[in-house]
Specification:
The N and C termini lie far apart (86 Å). Helices cover 12% and strands 37% of the residues. It has a single domain (38-147), classed as Jelly Rolls. β1 (44-45) and β2 (49-55) form a beta hairpin. The model is unreliable at 6-22 (pLDDT under 50). The chain is mainly beta.
Length: 151
């Protein structure tokens, strides 16, 4: 079987392009951009949750961005933070409730793709029920937490 020259030429150009793109993209300037692939993000284990600091230091004054992973069947107790926190639900369903009386059964589901603001000095509690959920939290430090549960 004979391949027409034009078809061969087109095939060669397409094949060359595929080989070129398989070699990888151009090298990025680290002064312009940094990338952390999922396996590069360092998670710290907590009690019922894990967290990763992406930007800043939540224990110090200034901007911070963290990831919070709530493991199934884990949640916090009523508490508040001194500053507003801006939260985007990346994965799973996050369950939230407000007030000093703990009743996680009445928590409201917040699905992935939702955006939540926790206002400073307002009492809330939150966590996961049957599935893991991952949050991105942005705030101004220090990000302390004060227990506020009424017994």
């Amino acid at each position: 079987m004979r391949i027409p020259r034009a078809a061969f030429a087109v095939s060669l150009v397409v094949f060359s392009g595929a080989i070129g793109s398989a070699r990888g993209a151009a090298e990025l300037n680290p002064k312009a951009i940094t990338i952390q692939m999922p396996n590069d993000i360092k998670w710290r284990k907590g009690t019922g949750s894990e967290s990763a600091v992406l930007v800043g230091d939540p224990s110090k004054p200034g901007l911070y961005i963290t990831l919070q992973k709530w493991l199934p069947h884990n949640n916090s107790r009523p508490h508040f933070h001194p500053n507003d926190r801006y939260i985007y639900v990346l994965k799973g369903t996050w369950w939230v409730a407000t007030g000093p009386k703990y009743d996680f059964a009445s928590a409201t589901p917040v699905p992935a793709g939702s955006y939540v603001t926790h206002y400073g000095k307002e009492i809330h509690y939150d966590g996961a029920k049957d599935e893991e959920c991952i949050l991105e939290i942005v705030g101004m430090g220090p990000a302390t937490s004060t227990a506020a549960e009424e017994k």
